[in-house]
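Q: How do we represent a protein-ligand complex in a form that can be generated token by token?
A: Start from the inputs.
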Amino acid sequence: MKNRAHWDAVAAGLKPDGRAVINGKRVDTANYSDDFSPVTGTSLAQVSECGVAEVDAAVASSRAAFNNSWGRMSHGARKTAMTNLSNLILQNADELAALDVLDMGKPISDATTIDVPGSAAILNFYAEAIDKVAGEIPTTDPGNVALVRRVPLGVVGAVVPWNYPLEMAIWKLGPALAAGNTVVLKPAEQSPLSALRLAELALEAGMPEGVLNVVTGQGEVTGAALGRHNDVDVLTFTGSTQVGKFFLEYSGQSNMKQVWLECGGKSPNLIFADVDNIHEAAEFAARAIFFNQGEVCSANSRLLVERSILDEFTALVKAQADKIVLGNPLDENTTMGPLVDRTQAGRVAEFIASGNTSSRLVRGGNRLTIDGSDCYIEPTIFADVAPNHEIAREEIFGPVLSVIPFDTEDEAIAIANDSIYGLAASVWTGNLKRAHRVSDALHAGTVSVNTVDALGLNIPFGGFKQSGFGRDLSLHALEKFTGLKTTWIRYE
Ligand code: NAD
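Then emit the structure tokens for the protein with nicotinamide-adenine-dinucleotide bound:
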């Protein structure tokens, strides 16, 4: 494993260019803002504040690329360009990993083993899928034939969050580009640098100018301009439920573009006393909330434990949390870095203060300053949390776990489902019938049994209720970026 000295040298060598990439070129904009790092506390780059004019230019460029190049290219040529981009991501792995770490604080060991190779693999998956999807020929009366094909929709607007800057962008780009669309990508203002670099790599990979435009800026300006644009055909969004609802409004206010939403979560993890391996369940329970600083949409932030094992299980999860190495994320031994910025750290600290008034603090609870940054929050566990308390209901998006006791299976299911969210859930039991019964009853897009947060690039990911709709990953994601088109020929 590369060590801290290596990553410090990589970080010192970075000279990120924060200008937007439109029509194959870096563009100068009227306004810029600082992109502060939660690791160093300093500005990494001056980043373009794109307004309506830049978004218009980006959409026009993507429209031209759809009409004249990408949308008309052979499948083979598109596949080659996407495969090239996947390879370039791996060739530039150190740089991309360091950019995401500096921008949002995730441990370098995760960025190098999950985010970067995962992004490359997803692009490959969709590159390979291009010529493996087929249309339909339904039954028609004699003398007729109906050809039903999935066709690209045109220009896709993609608005993504900061918790997996590179990977969330790729979740959208992979299927959108494979289906033959072009994309205007709007990264989060906290973490724009890997997306901007990706746009350069896309050109190097042989994607014509305009296939991937990247516009940076504030959500309510740049993101809203994309959401309201009359020449964007599909808007795909990952982020908070609150902002997801804005995109539904933007669509209605403009051209009724299709909107696909991957939003928040407050996922429950149900531990039954008949669990096969209580130690393994505790290890996974800790990982399910503390991984990526708890900044994961599907984080298992509600731990529902059967009362007969409550004290033992809580102690085991605490022991796992005690092993977490909180520190500078460029250190190869760090397993938890800072939160994305001071705003988020302050927000999480407020939730902890609220938990302190009503629940029992088992560990953590402090905001720390490390290497000059005060964005660090200790892995925090609250016990005796009432299911209706705000720390058990609201998406904290930080390393805060609420332990909630239950006495019966029905009670556990009722507490688990009593949420506006329905993204993910986990169940631990050694009883096969119970595993089926409880997973059937849980209203969540993915229910993991005897594991947590199960995820695979060929498996659909997304939620029910206010966690959104539409699915990322898998071949199903292609459906979001294509429309069914029928050509009906009467030949007699
Ligand atoms: P956010 O909703 O604040 O921002 C997401 C994106 O929307 C950013 O690019 C932002 O600039 C843009 N945006 C913000 N306000 C906007 C507005 N008024 N109009 C248009 N665009 C706007 O979310 P975040 O804080 O970046 O990320 C955290 C959230 O993302 C959490 O709620 C988390 O659950 C969610 N998330 C969901 C998934 C999933 O797949 N379900 C994955 C990762 C993160």
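Residues 159-163, 186, 188-189, 219-220, 223-224, 227, 238-240, 243, 246, 262-265, 297, 395, 397, 423, 467 surround nicotinamide-adenine-dinucleotide (CB under 6 Å). The chain is about 40% helix and 20% strand.
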